[in-house]
C-alpha cells in the first residue's frame, strides 16, 4: 500500500514551500539585501542580536514606511516585512532555526498590527492597477505575462499566507502570550466576515476577475492558497467538523455518531486490483481450479528444504495438524503409501523438526507494537426512515388494511416481519438534512406563523454563505475554469485562461537543464492549483451541508451546472497511478533549503531518482481523494446525476483508478461504482465480480438498498428531470425566504 495519511493539509514545511515557484528564487536574495541595508542605516549588526525593544522600534519604522505615498519606497518596506516572515534566513544555519524565527517574527508582526496593514495595501494594489503595462505594450513578445508583472501583489499575498499558515497551527512550545495571540487572530478573522467586503470575498472576486479579464495579471496560485487557508482557519478542518456535527445532532435530539469515517478509513487496507482478464472473470488461469497437491507429492528431501506450514501466524506454537502423518516427509520418513502408520518416535522427531525450523525462520516480534485486526465489516450498516415504510405493504397483505404514518405497530404481523423491523430500527439513521427539509416544508406551509419564529444561526458558515450568496454561481464557474486549465489532461487553447503568468520567467531558458527545471516547475505549479481548488471546494461543501442542506444543494447545483462531473472524470482519465506517484519537485530548490547552507549547482543528474521509491506525492493523492469526495457528494442520492456518470462512461475510468493502492482513495472510487452499478447491466456485473466483492467488503451497507440490481423503484429513468427541477425550486424558495 502507498504510505499516505490524509489530513486537512500537508506538513508545515511543504505548505510554506509550495507558495513559491522555483523562478522566484532570485527574489529571496533581493529581500535579504534590502533588509540588510535597513539594518546598516540604523547601525544594527543583525536582527537576531537586537533586543525586544529595538526589534519593536524597527518594526514601527517599517510600519511608518508602509504608509508613505511613494510606491517604490513603500515596496521596499514590503520587502522588509517579507524577509521577516521568511525567518531572516540569512542569519540561520539550519532549517529548524529558520522555522523558529519565522514563527516568532509572525507573532511579533501580528501583535504590532502588520497583518491588517498588509490587507489594506493589498486592497489598494488591486484597485490601483487594473491593467499591467505589459498588456498595452506594442512589442508582442513583451505581451506574454511573466513573473515580474505581479511582483507587488505576490509579495503582499506571500506575507498574508505565511502569517495565516504559521498562526493557525498550534505548538506545544507556544508561550501563553502566543496562545492568546492565536485566539485573537482567529477572532479577528471571524469578525472580518461582518465587514462590508471581507478578505475572503475580495479573494473570490479576484478569482472571478482573473477568469473574466484576460489582460488582468494576478498571482492566482497564491490567491487560491491564501483563500483555502483562510477558509480552513475560520471554518475548521475535518476533526473540528466531526465535533460540530456531534454537537448539532445533540441539539436536534438525534443520536450521536458512533463512527468517525476518516479514522475508520485510516485503519483499512487497500485491495489488490484485478490484474488480468481471467482475474476479472474470477476464472483461474488454465481453465480449472488448482487444488492442493496430493499428499505423496509433498516431499522434502532434507531438513533445510521447505516444510509445508499450516499455521503461518503463530510460528512458535505447535498446531494439532503438525503431529499428523502428512506434514513432514523426509527421506528417512516413509510415505503413508509405503507404511500404514508412523511410529511414535518418528512423529515426535517430525514435530520437533517443524518447531525448530519455524523458530529459525520466524523473526522475534516481541518488540513490535501489536496491530489491532478488525474482524468483520468496517462500517455499521444503516437504514433510512423510508426503509421502514414497507410495513404498510405488509399490513395490507396480511391484515387487509393500512395505518398511514404508523411505523411501530406490529400486531397481527408474522414473526419474521417483526424481526426484520427490529433490525431496521436498530440500524436506523436519521440525517440532519432530513429534519432540515421537513422544517422548511412546514415553514412553506405556514410562513406567517412558523416562519417568524425561526432563529437564523449567526455561526461562521451562515455568515460566510450570506456573504457569498449573490455570486456563488460566478465563483463556482471561475474555480472550475482554473481547475480545467490546471488539469494534467488539459490541452492548450487560445481561449483558455493563462495560469502560468506567475511561474514563467521574463526570459525563456537557454540551456537544457534550465528548460527541464522550468518544466518541473510548471507541472508542480499546476498540481498546487488542483490541490488548493479541490481542498477549497470540499471544505465549503462539508461546512455548508452541516449548516443547512439547502445551502449545500445550492452550491452543488451550480457545480453540476458548470460541468463539474465531466471535468472530474476527465481529470481521472489519465494514468492516475503515475500521477499520484510522480514527484515534480527539486528538493534543493524548495524553500528554505534553497537559501540555507551551501548552494548546490543544478545538473541533469539532480532530476534522476526522484520517483524511485513507492511513497506517493502527497499533494497529488490529496487532490485526487478530494475530487473523488466532491464527486461523491454531488451524486449521492441523486439519480439524475448518477446517470451522468453512466452517460459519460465513468465505470472504466474509475475501475482503472482502483490500481492506486490506497484505502481511502479506493473507498471513494468503489462508492462511485456502487451508485451506478444498477444502471450498468447484468453483463458488466458478471464480468466485474472482483469489483463487486470489493464494494461488499469496503463500502457501508444500506439495509434495503438493492444497489446491485435495477429493481429500485426510485431508479426509474422517467423522473430524472423532475427531481432536479423540484430540488432547484426548493432551494430558490429557501434563499428567497431567508435572505
Description:
The protein is mainly α. The protein has a domain at 298-362. The chain is 54% helix and 0% strand. The protein is built from 30 helices and no strands. It has helices at 12-17, 25-41, 52-66, 71-85, 95-111, 114-128, 151-167, 176-191, 199-212, 220-235, 238-251, 261-267, 277-280, 344-361, 390-398, 415-426, 432-445, 460-468, 472-486, 512-547, 549-561, 564-572, 576-581, 618-635, 639-647, 650-657, 663-680, 682-687, 689-698, 720-738. α7 packs parallel to α10. It starts with 11 loop residues before the first helix and ends with a helix. Residues 414-739 form the Far11/STRP C-terminal domain. It holds the Pfam family N1221. This is Far11/STRP C-terminal domain-containing protein. Residues 1-299 form the Far11/STRP N-terminal domain. Residues 275-299 are annotated as: Disordered.
Write the layout of secondary structure elements.
Elements: H1 12-17, H2 25-41, H3 52-66, H4 71-85, H5 95-111, H6 114-128, H7 151-167, H8 176-191, H9 199-212, H10 220-235, H11 238-251, H12 261-267, H13 277-280, H14 344-361, H15 390-398, H16 415-426, H17 432-445, H18 460-468, H19 472-486, H20 512-547, H21 549-561, H22 564-572, H23 576-581, H24 618-635, H25 639-647, H26 650-657, H27 663-680, H28 682-687, H29 689-698, H30 720-738
Amino acid at each position: 500500500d502507498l504510505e499516505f495519511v490524509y489530513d486537512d493539509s500537508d506538513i508545515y514545511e511543504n505548505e510554506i514551500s509550495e507558495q513559491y515557484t522555483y523562478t522566484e528564487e532570485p527574489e529571496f536574495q533581493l529581500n535579504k539585501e534590502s533588509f540588510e541595508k535597513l539594518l546598516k542605516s540604523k547601525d544594527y549588526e543583525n536582527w537576531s542580536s537586537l533586543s525586544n525593544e529595538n526589534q519593536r522600534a524597527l518594526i514601527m519604522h517599517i510600519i511608518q514606511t508602509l504608509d508613505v505615498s511613494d510606491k517604490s519606497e513603500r515596496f521596499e518596506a514590503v520587502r522588509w516585512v517579507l524577509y521577516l516572515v521568511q525567518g531572516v534566513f540569512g542569519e540561520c544555519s539550519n532549517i529548524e532555526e529558520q522555522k523558529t524565527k519565522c514563527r516568532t517574527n509572525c507573532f511579533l508582526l501580528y501583535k504590532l498590527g502588520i497583518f491588517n496593514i498588509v490587507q489594506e495595501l493589498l486592497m489598494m494594489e488591486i484597485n490601483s492597477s487594473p491593467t499591467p503595462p505589459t498588456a498595452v505594450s506594442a512589442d508582442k513578445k513583451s505581451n506574454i505575462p511573466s513573473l515580474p508583472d505581479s511582483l507587488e501583489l505576490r509579495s503582499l499575498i506571500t506575507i498574508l499566507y505565511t502569517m495565516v499558515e504559521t498562526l493557525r497551527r498550534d505548538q506545544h512550545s507556544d508561550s501563553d502570550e502566543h496562545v492568546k495571540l492565536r485566539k485573537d487572530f482567529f477572532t479577528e478573522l471571524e469578525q472580518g466576515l461582518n465587514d462590508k467586503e471581507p478578505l475572503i470575498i475580495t479573494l473570490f472576486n479576484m478569482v472571478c476577475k482573473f477568469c473574466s479579464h484576460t489582460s488582468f495579471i494576478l498571482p492566482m496560485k497564491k490567491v487560491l492558497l491564501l483563500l483555502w487557508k483562510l477558509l480552513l482557519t475560520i471554518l475548521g478542518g475535518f476533526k473540528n467538523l466531526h465535533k460540530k456535527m456531534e454537537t448539532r445532532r445533540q441539539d436536534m435530539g438525534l443520536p450521536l455518531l458512533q463512527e468517525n469515517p476518516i479514522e475508520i478509513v485510516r485503519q483499512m487496507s487497500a485491495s489488490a486490483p484485478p490484474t488480468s482478464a481471467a482475474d476479472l472473470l474470477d476464472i483461474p488461469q488454465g481453465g480449472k481450479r488448482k487444488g492442493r497437491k496430493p499428499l505423496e507429492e509433498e516431499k522434502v528431501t532434507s531438513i533445510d528444504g521447505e516444510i509445508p506450514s499450516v499455521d503461518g501466524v503463530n510460528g512458535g506454537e505447535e498446531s494439532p495438524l503438525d503431529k499428523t502423518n502428512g506434514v513432514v516427509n523426509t527421506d528417512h520418513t516413509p510415505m503413508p503409501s509405503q507404511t500404514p502408520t508412523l511410529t511414535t518416535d518418528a512423529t515426535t522427531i517430525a514435530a520437533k523438526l517443524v518447531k525448530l525450523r519455524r523458530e529459525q525462520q520466524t523473526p522475534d516480534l516481541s518488540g513490535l507494537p501489536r496491530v489491532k485486526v478488525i474482524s468483520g465489516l468496517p462500517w455499521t450498516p444503516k437504514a433510512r426512515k423510508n426503509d421502514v415504510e414497507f410495513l404498510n405493504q405488509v399490513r395490507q397483505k396480511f391484515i387487509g388494511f393500512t395505518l398511514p404514518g404508523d411505523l411501530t405497530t406490529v400486531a397481527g404481523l408474522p414473526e419474521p416481519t417483526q424481526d426484520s423491523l427490529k433490525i431496521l430500527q436498530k440500524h436506523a439513521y436519521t440525517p440532519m438534512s432530513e429534519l432540515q427539509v421537513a422544517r422548511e416544508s412546514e415553514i412553506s406551509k405556514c410562513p406567517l406563523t412558523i416562519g417568524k419564529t425561526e432563529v437564523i444561526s449567526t455561526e461562521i458558515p451562515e455568515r460566510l454563505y450570506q456573504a457569498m450568496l449573490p455570486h456563488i454561481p460566478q465563483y463556482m464557474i471561475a474555480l472550475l475554469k482554473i481547475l480545467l486549465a490546471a488539469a494534467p489532461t488539459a490541452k492548450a487553447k487560445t481561449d483558455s485562461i493563462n495560469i502560468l503568468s506567475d511561474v514563467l520567467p521574463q526570459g525563456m531558458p537557454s540551456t537544457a537543464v534550465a528548460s527541464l527545471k522550468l518544466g518541473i516547475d510548471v507541472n508542480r505549479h499546476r498540481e498546487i492549483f488542483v490541490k488548493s481548488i479541490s481542498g477549497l471546494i470540499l471544505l465549503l461543501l462539508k461546512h455548508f451541508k452541516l449548516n443547512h442542506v439547502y445551502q449545500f444543494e445550492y452550491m452543488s447545483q451550480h457545480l453540476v451546472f458548470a460541468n463539474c462531473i465531466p471535468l472530474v472524470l476527465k481529470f481521472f482519465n489519465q494514468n492516475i497511478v503515475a500521477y499520484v506517484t510522480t514527484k515534480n519537485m527539486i528538493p534543493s530548490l524548495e524553500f528554505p533549503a534553497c537559501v540555507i547552507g551551501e548552494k548546490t549547482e543544478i545538473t541533469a543528474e539532480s532530476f534522476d531518482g526522484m520517483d524511485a521509491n513507492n511513497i506517493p506525492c502527497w499533494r497529488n493523492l490529496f487532490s485526487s481523494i478530494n475530487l473523488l469526495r466532491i464527486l461523491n457528494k454531488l451524486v449521492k442520492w441523486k439519480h439524475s446525476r448518477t446517470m451522468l456518470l453512466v452517460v459519460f462512461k465513468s465505470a472504466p475510468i474509475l475501475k482503472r483508478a482502483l490500481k492506486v493502492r490506497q484505502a481511502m482513495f479506493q473507498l471513494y472510487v468503489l462508492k462511485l461504482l456502487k451508485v451506478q452499478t444498477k444502471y450498468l447491466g447484468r453483463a458488466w456485473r458478471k464480468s466485474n465480480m472482483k469489483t463487486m466483492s470489493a464494494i461488499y467488503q469496503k463500502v457501508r451497507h444500506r439495509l434495503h438498498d438493492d444497489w446491485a440490481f435495477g429493481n429500485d423503484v426510485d431508479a426509474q429513468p422517467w423522473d430524472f428531470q423532475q427531481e432536479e427541477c423540484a430540488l432547484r425550486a426548493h432551494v430558490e424558495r429557501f434563499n428567497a425566504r431567508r435572505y
